[in-house]
Amino acid sequence: MQQHPRISRRRLAGLFVWAGAAHALPACGQAAEKRVLVLGAGLAGLSAAWELQQLGYAVTVIEGRDRVGGRVWTLRDGFEDGQFAEIGAVRIPDVHELTLDYCDKLGLELDTYKDGSPLYYIDGQAFQHVDGEAWPLMGLTAEEEKLTLGDFWEREIAATFEEFGDPRMNGFPKPGIVEKYDGMVYADFLRMRGASDAYLKIYAADNGSEISTIGTLAWMGAEVADKAWGATYHIRGGNDQLPLRIADEVGLDNILLSRKVTKIEHDDAGVTVTFSGPDGEETLSADYLVCAIPFTTLRDVKIEPAFSADKTRAIKELFLMNAGRGYIQTRTRFWEADGIGGLKIAKTDGPAERIWNLSDVQPEGSTKGMIQSYTQNHNADAYCEIAPEDREEYCLAAVEKFFPEIRAEKVAFFQYCWADDPWAKGAWTDILPDQWWIVAASRKPEGRVTFAGEHTSVWAGWMQGAIESGQRAADEIAAMG
Length: 481
What we know:
Blueprint: H1 9-13, E1 35-39, H2 43-54, E2 58-62, E3 74-75, E4 85-86, E5 92-93, H3 97-105, E6 110-112, E7 119-122, E8 125-127, H4 149-157, H5 161-164, H6 177-181, H7 186-192, H8 197-207, H9 216-225, E9 232-235, H10 241-250, E10 255-256, E11 260-266, E12 271-277, E13 280-286, E14 288-291, H11 295-298, E15 302-304, H12 309-317, E16 319-321, E17 323-330, E18 344-348, E19 354-357, E20 369-376, H13 377-384, H14 391-399, H15 406-409, E21 410-417, E22 428-430, H16 437-443, E23 449-451, H17 463-480
Parallel strand pairs: 1-2, 1-14, 2-10, 7-18, 11-15, 14-23
Antiparallel strand pairs: 3-4, 5-9, 6-9, 7-8, 11-12, 12-13, 16-22, 17-20, 17-21, 18-19, 19-20
Family: Belongs to the flavin monoamine oxidase family.
Cofactor: FAD
Keywords: Oxidoreductase, Signal
């Protein structure tokens, strides 16, 4: 098990300054038997519920799914030798202090993803790259021909951190940055810094095709916040162990599953939530509400009275990036014979996009492989437009172009498209160009209603973002008295 220093919430509260505002931690014991409803039993809602209970509030969590965890979801059915696939969150960077602190508190052991050399498949060429050697691609500038991804990051990305500001230290973004960069897609920012389209193929093969859609400010905020990232962890036995353990702490009797929220009523006296479930339509009332469901789902909920104009617009316009995944369990870890390894064993510009390797975090003694085609953006949209029963063939046909052994090696296959998920309708939040205003609007409380979820955090798409937002929402309620 990896050991990490324990970090108190009071210390953590001073670490993160997002959009220039930090939240002071209230004293415990001031809840005075007040009740809170939490919408959503994903990691954000569960974190908020757990923190509120520790502050003395009575909490009930309402969840539409028949399970807890939301987009932290480990699949164990259908695979041999006790192996599993991560349908949602895959990684924990070593700089995600909040996530690691929760793992430590809950006694969860961690495994480390191994480093290794990936296979590249770009412009129809399959190759492994050695730092210092020339990239075998046309269109690179003379400077880029031997430029490593690490050197590119230092020269074109990290060199701008002082200009942008730091969410952990002095606020993000600095004055003037919104006006300068809010309208710019991140790939265009890199072009402005001098990157050629040929080198952007290499960068996107490593980081995902998302770079051609996400806004510069959203990407850079995460880059600065995680600039010291070194090792990458996984929770032993599956990342869903984290929400499952928090749910146990909250108390399963306090979590109502398979309840679809249809209406939120709120005023100066309290809140009332209407939902449908196994017993038909029901209502619950409380003093406060934490809304920890994605805005893509909240759009279908009736709000009385309507939230403020900027909140209503944010709920309508917030964008969740699509992600399509094809999971392939293999008879062997055949790629290792060619010296290929690491978490991302194939980085491509094709429809399979990146191939992630979860084999190294499978149960001890297991020798089969577990890999996934991890698509996003236009690649995910193309994958998800195909009928579910045809996605296996689509995935295998794309992968065999660079791993010709894949059909003979396949033991089991599972596919999932997050755009098809009825409770999320997407995988994670991307703040698009000209949308920086959404950051403040999505976090802002509406009377007795506070908001949590990765969409309200600098760590959009990460378990850290869910936890950070849940703690913030709990602090906001406690500050209300």
